[in-house]
Design goal:
With 326 residues, the chain is mainly α. Helices cover 78% and strands 1% of the residues.
Length: 326
């Protein structure tokens, strides 16, 4: 942490009215820019929500113009450069590009938080102002920011009718499934099924729980790394619309490792038959969980998912046991 920079930051209570107005102008510019960035980012898939953020950016532009008029009336045309990072304890904003990988509901919640932060700032700043006109403006802006939740609701009612909201919710669900569920499910299936044969073959060949655990640990982590990189490198998501390759790779890699570790961890138990019994029970829980996820998120009929996963996994398990026993 740069302590020398921290020591040069002023507290809000140390700012002059000139500096407070300059900070408010810069903050409104930033917020309007963030809302416009979100609107541009969301416009292709969520046009109605993009229209809401367009309206909110216009509101912030209006506040900025009011603040500039007050500043020039009192202090002239030279507005000092003072931003959020120059003030200790002042609320911060995440860059707009960091928000682009978040869900629609998270972005909406972030916008509500921005309005609350701005309202708190104006309320505190109004208490410090000695000029009646400035105090009134800051108090009005505090009330306006607190009312932005209602304003956002009005804009949402105007632009987000039931059909638009249903369409946007369907797109958000599709993005979630393609980015997180599908790669994670593929990883869980690969980790759970592909590691069955080597783990149980080693288990029955050696009847040594610790050796079996080490083989299972290596197979699970190795498969997770391989699946993660494969998923991330196979598709950048631009044309397919499957989302961030980093997210998909993370989901696939982690779930692959989890799928294998589920039936490797029981072999930390020193008794071979106890560990094996628990591992087999874990395998069937994993396979039924995969079938449920396929039915819940991928709309696969449950009987088909059961046939594909449980029967297939059971066959792989049997192959591992037979090879190890031979």
């Amino acid at each position: 942490m740069n302590l020398s920079f921290m020591s040069t930051r002023k507290r809000l209570t140390d700012l002059s009215e000139r500096e407070i107005l300059a900070l408010a102008i810069a903050s409104e510019e930033d917020d309007a820019r963030i809302y416009r960035s979100w609107a541009d980012f969301l416009r292709a898939d969520y046009p109605a929500t993009a229209a809401v953020f367009d309206g909110m950016s216009e509101e912030e532009d209006g506040h900025r113009r009011q603040l500039i008029d007050t500043f020039t009336r009192r202090f002239g045309d030279a507005i000092p450069v003072i931003r959020r990072e120059h003030v200790a304890g002042y609320f911060s904003r995440r860059p707009a590009w960091m928000m682009q990988n978040l869900s629609l509901e998270t972005i909406r919640a972030e916008a509500a938080g921005m309005e609350r932060d701005a309202a708190d700032f104006y309320a505190r700043a109004a208490q410090q102002s000695l000029d009646a006109g400035t105090r009134k403006l800051l108090g009005d802006l505090a009330a306006a920011e607190r009312g932005h939740e209602n304003r956002a609701a009005e804009l949402s009612d105007r632009h987000l009718d039931d059909d638009s909201r249903a369409e946007e919710d369907a797109v958000a669900h599709r993005d979630f499934v393609l980015t997180w569920v599908q790669p994670g499910l593929a990883g869980l299936m690969d980790g759970s099924v592909s590691t069955l044969a080597p783990i149980f073959a080693v288990a029955f060949a050696t009847q040594d729980p610790w050796t079996t655990f080490l083989v299972g640990l290596a197979a699970s982590i190795g498969a997770g790394i391989s699946m993660g990189f494969t998923e991330a490198a196979s598709d950048d998501g631009v044309i397919s619309g499957r989302g961030s390759p980093l997210k998909r790779g993370l989901s696939s890699g982690v779930m692959t490792a989890v799928g294998g570790l589920g039936h490797a961890l029981p072999y930390l138990i020193p008794d071979f038959w106890t560990a094996t019994t628990i591992a087999i029970m874990v395998v069937f829980v994993e396979l039924w969980a995969i079938a449920w996820i396929q039915n819940r998120w991928m709309q696969t009929p449950f009987w088909r998912a059961t046939l594909q996963v449980v029967v297939g996994g059971g066959l792989v398990l049997a192959v591992g046991v037979l090879i190890g026993s031979g």
